[in-house]
Design a protein that fits this description.
Oligomer: single chain
Shape: globular
Largest sheet: none
Structural class: mainly alpha
Number of helices: 10
Helix content: 55-70%
């Protein structure tokens, strides 16, 4: 779904890239630093979200995280760049389509849904603890199906929102 229709607080390409340029992604791509752990990535991610919030006051934690996660999904998972184990540590972009897909796939797993659906709108992810609750549920979902955390996106139902009616 495009930023224009999603309710994103910043919509222009210029504003998005201006904000993202303020985040130091170098620690994730310097292979001389060796493999990255999930804990080290999570620490970097929390600081990166905080940085985005500092430079772009229109963002909430949820929107800042989504911007970072979309960028990293493209560069790390699809582009296969970054330190060893980075693609295993990155977070999926959270949005309505993912929430719908997770609810469908894990309808019989209330322990997962309690975490992933502690809120159900990006704008309602207003603190990092809430964001990490969702990510924790996504980690449980990934373990349940035997995939990387980013690969819980396989349950994304977002195309239902963008279908063109004729």
């Amino acid at each position: 779904m495009s930023a224009l229709r999603s309710g994103a607080p910043i919509k222009s390409r210029r504003d998005v890239y201006t904000a993202l340029r303020q985040v130091d992604f170098d620690p994730l791509f310097d292979k001389a630093k060796g493999p990255i752990s999930h804990a080290a990535f999570d620490e970097w991610h929390a600081a990166a979200v905080d940085r985005l919030l500092g430079v772009e006051p229109r963002l909430t934690v949820g929107w800042a995280a989504k911007m970072i996660n979309v960028y990293l999904k493209t560069r790390c998972y699809i582009g296969a760049q970054g330190r060893h184990h980075l693609s295993e540590a990155i977070h999926p972009p959270i949005d309505a389509g993912l929430w719908i897909g997770l609810r469908r796939e894990f309808s019989d797993r209330p322990n997962i849904l309690k975490q992933t659906h502690c809120v159900e709108k990006i704008k309602d992810i207003v603190d990092y603890a809430t964001y990490m609750c969702i990510i924790s549920g996504c980690r449980d979902a990934a373990r349940a199906v035997g995939c990387k955390l980013i690969e819980v996106e396989q349950f994304w139902a977002g195309t239902e929102f963008t279908a063109v009616k004729r």
